[in-house]
Each structure stands twice: as structure tokens, then as C-alpha cells.
Amino acid sequence: MTERVKYAAGTAAAAVILAVLFFTYTLWNSSGILTMIPKPEGSRPYVLTETKEGSYPKALSALLTDGVYALLKGGTPRNALLSAASAAKEAALLVEDGGEGMTEVYASFRFAPSDTSALKKGSLPEALKTVFKGASVRAGSEKGVFTIEAEGLSSPVYYTVKGKNVLMAAELSALRRMEDASKKSSANLGGKKWRQEKSWPAHIEVSDGGVITAGAEHKFPITIEAAWHSLEPKNPSDPAGEIRWALVDLGKPVEAYLSSSLKAKKWDTADCIIPEPLLLSMGINLPPLGGDPRDWPFPLSSLGEIAENLDMKEAQIREILSGQTVFSLGGQNRILWFSLPGFLVEFSGRTELMNELVDSFWKNLFFGAEPKPLPGFTFGGTTNVPFSVIGAGRDGIAVLGLTTPQSINAKNRLGKFLKEDEAVVGWMLADLPRIGGALSEMTKMSSFLEEEGMEDSGPYGDYQGYGDNEQLAEPLQPDLSLSPFDQGITDSFGSVLKQLGRVLIVWEKPLSGRINWYKTAAK
């Protein structure tokens, strides 16, 4: 080999090494937005998001910032950080439970180069002037750290610029934690790999920190990872976006248990009844249930108690609840002079068992009332006692609930939302604006009933001359508590829901599924 060839080979090898180093450095920096975010503590609840321009989850912001008990209320620097995320070209946010009732926000943003340059010089760019109105920026006590003070903010926001990234926090200590974490790969999320739809523009991870399983023998955090993107609906009824979600890092024993006990099955979309107008409908294919029905999780425990009141055997209760079951809020009902959302449960199973369930429903809960036949059903029916009741069935289904016959419109079918050949574990369809409106109305009615009850009490309290130990029965006006919240709370929460539209959640496999959201209300 000549010297010229050796020199050329050596030069080529050096060029390759330099290219590898350059691209490694470039790729490291291009994904460095998460390098600035500290690793959350697994024992505390947290929400982590990484989004590109135009994909920041406004619904998440609404849940965190709006309402009486919102964690990050308007006028606080942490609230402003969420607003800043929607103005950035790229954003990474960690919202973490800080303990003692505190919630901390760690934010890493990327803006246009000119905006980043302005921030580095202590000047607020146009992209952030709508977030920080009437703001002034001044240099902090530490080198490279600036504070933003704005109208309506209770305290300043701190930031510093690290290369392409703008780090922001509501506390100087949080900003320091981000800077320290960025220097140690073991302390930051720079190595995080999203598992759901890597090419999509937005990702989120939500962990309960073990809160849900706190009372269990084996405590572990429940973590959900999801990715989403917007769609271009051709028709008003088409989804405006899709989310792919999965339960992650549950541990092999839990994942194996869920995979073996929950099975995806095809749903008879023609026989699943969706009340009209719809608030919420949820269907699930349950595995065989063990243990005492009173120990089952809600709402199964409530159904177990109701089934016991129907004077049915425990084996029958298990068979009824082990299979495809649909819970629905929707339709209409009238209690006295009030119009309320209806409630409906649909069971599936052997025709003989469904028939026995309907018979027991009327005999034990409504004292043998004779229901009128209901079109489309072969046994049971409907009546008013004084509210509308349905207990009917056909073939292998039984429908029980408090709603009007007109509410179970034959046109409103599950087939409008699920494909006929689609096998899923479960699904949920929710019209969130309608739920928000219904919550507010139910609270108003509850308050009215309480006021009426106080006005109806005589000048001597409840004593009406029937004897000290004798109580006057009021079968037509039971003690109704339609909402556990006061008007302010439900109005506030209802306003949040009204911003969110309609969603369809599909539990496709034991550990994963999808969510579609719609701009229009349910039809």
C-alpha cells in the first residue's frame, strides 16, 4: 500500500469518526428538550408531556387550571407556564406533586431562534407577550437567570437559556433542579424513549405514584403513556383527533394477570342500546368474578347489592355480571316535576336468566307492578311509579333502568361508533359538554328540594301530631340528593367539561387502546 493510499484511508477513517461524532452530538442536542427535565419521583403522581407546535393539550390545561379545586389556578406563575407551553414550537413539561399540597412545574421550551436570542438578552419576544401581559424582564441575582413579572401574576417566573432550550419555573429552586439534572444523564429524562407512535407530534405520560394501589398488598404506580395527533374530519360526525394509549411498567405479574383475565371480544353493535340524548355510555366485557359481591369495585359492588335485593342467588349474580355489560347515563326521566337524565344498565346472557332477572326486578323492587309492553322487547316493559322505569328484555339481553321509553331510540346504536367486526375489551362514549350541563342542573334541583323540605317543616319541627316515635311516610317524595357538590363547584367543573367536546375511549387490548375526540356533540 502506497503512502498516498494510506494517507487517503486514514483521512477517510478520520472523516467517518468526525461525522459520527458530529451527528451524535447533533442528535443529542436535537432531543435535548427532555434532557432539561428532571426524572420524577416514582412515589408521587406526575404528568409529563412533550409536544410540538400546535399539539399542546388544551384539555389538559383546562383540567389543571380551571375550576374551584384546580391545581394550577389562573394568576399563578405555574399556570402561566402551561400557557407558555402552547406558545412554544416545542415544549416539555413535568407537573409533579411536590408534597404538602404543592404542585411543581418544570418547563423546557424551544422557540424560534430569534425569540430564543431575545430571551437570552433579557427581552420578551412577541410569542410570549400574549402569555405575560404587561411584562417586564430583569436580570436575576444569579448569572444567566432572568425573572418575568407580569400583570395578574402573583409572583415572578424564572428562566434561563441553555443552548436551544429555554428553562422556566415558578421557583428558583425548581430552576436549579433542572440545571443540575441536565448535567447528569441519570437525573434527567434525556434518554426517555416514547413507545406509543414515535412519529406523532405529541406524547404524554401520567402516573398516579401508587395512590390507587395504596391499600393493596402489593403497591405499585399505575402509569399510562399516550400519543396523539389531529385529524381532518370529512364529515361533522368524523373524529377530529386520535390518541393511542397503553398501560406501561406495571410489572410482569400484573401485566400477565390483566392479559389472561381480560379478553377482547366482538360486540353486537345492533343490540347495544345507547340512550338519547347521550351523556355517558360504557361497555365492558368482564371476566368471571370471585369473592363477596360487596367487596367488588364500584360500580360492580352497587350492582351486586341491587342483585341481592332482587332475591337472586349469588351464582346467578356472578353469571349476569360476567360478560358484556353496558352502563349508560342519558335519555330523560321525570321525578315529580323535574326532568333528569336517565340511567340504564344492559346485561347479556342466557335468555332464561335474562327473563328471570327482569321478573325479579319488577317483583322485588317495584312490588309486583304490572309493566306495559315495550315495543322491540318480548318480556317485561315500562311503567311510571311516579318516575319512568324500564325493565325489559329480548333474546339474550335485559335492560333495566330509570328512563322513558322514548329515550331508547332504535336509531342510536353502538354501530355508529364501533365497527361491527371490531373486537375490544370495553369502550366508553362521553358527551362531556352535556355532562357538564347536567351536573349544574342536578345541583340546582337538589338545592331546590332541600329548600322546599325546610319550608315544609312545621313550626314545631318534624312533629305533626302522629306520636313521638311515628314517622310520616312520604313515598312520593323521597330524600333526594342529586349532587354531592355545591352550585359553585359543579358550575365550575361543568364549565371545564363544556370545553372538551365528545370522546370515544376504546379498550382494544388488556393493556392498550385508543381515544377519538369529536368537535360536535353526540347525535
UniProtKB/TrEMBL annotation:
Keyword terms of this UniProt record: Membrane, Transmembrane, Transmembrane helix
Keyword Membrane tagged: yes
Organism per entry: Cloacibacillus evryensis
Transmembrane segments: 7-28
Protein name: DUF3352 domain-containing protein
